[in-house]
Amino acid sequence: MMFVVSGAAKLAARRAEMRLTPPQLFIGLARAGVVTADEAVAAACSGAIPAAIEAVIARLPDEAQVAARITWARMSVIERADPLVDLLAAAAGKSPAEIDAFFEASSQI
Length: 109
Known about the structure:
The chain has 109 residues and is mostly helical.
């Protein structure tokens, strides 16, 4: 029996492998112009949430806001397949393809 993997399954598998370290995330956000260089450094040094990210978090439902802030404070890896990534992306008005491209570019840092 031969199995055919759908395009959606391939995309889900690719996303499941996408990961960033916090430095890659912070540098990527700065390079993309989402946060300033100073905010990226502050986030890396102290865990401070940059204003643009806080504005996105504030658009989430209350329970998701708590999860986002705790995750930001304690993250050691950022997984593209994490549902919180999609929630934040939607709140920021970013498409899944844009987030994929961000992860791909930032993973090269």
